[in-house]
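FAQ: What does a ligand-bound record look like?

Like this one, built around fe (ii) ion:
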Amino acid sequence: MAYFEWADDLVIDSGPIDADHMKLVALVNELHTATSQGTGQEVIHKIMAELITYTKEHLQREEQIMVSLHFPNLERHKDGHTRFTEKLNALQKKYEGGSITVASQLSTVLRDWLSLHIRRSDKEMKMLLQKRAVR
Ligand SMILES: [Fe+2]
Ligand SMILES: [Fe+2]
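The answer part, i.e. the structure of the complex:
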């Protein structure tokens, strides 16, 4: 069983948003495997950098899609993204400051946040898309 298991209830749009989320799940698993198997710091550093960058890019892409859908709770949703981005930046700073526990912490933080955020908040987009599809 993967560290972060993809599940049907994570599906939002069967399109670009799911593709991003799946890529993030894969990267979280990659980071977890690397940290738990004692892979070299260089490799861990590379995965971490990719994961942080990809997460931030995803949040921006998602907000753009929400704008185009006239998503009603955009500001509230954006606030959630901003708070999480701040958390990511703080972790990145800690890592750059030499903390070696950050890499494994990052996989936990991302798994927990993504699984909750997708199921609770991104899900509103799924409901919106479904509502519009039946009209
Ligand atoms: Fe998302
Ligand atoms: Fe989101």
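Follow-up question: can I read anything off the structure? Yes, for example: DSSP finds four helices and no strands in the chain.
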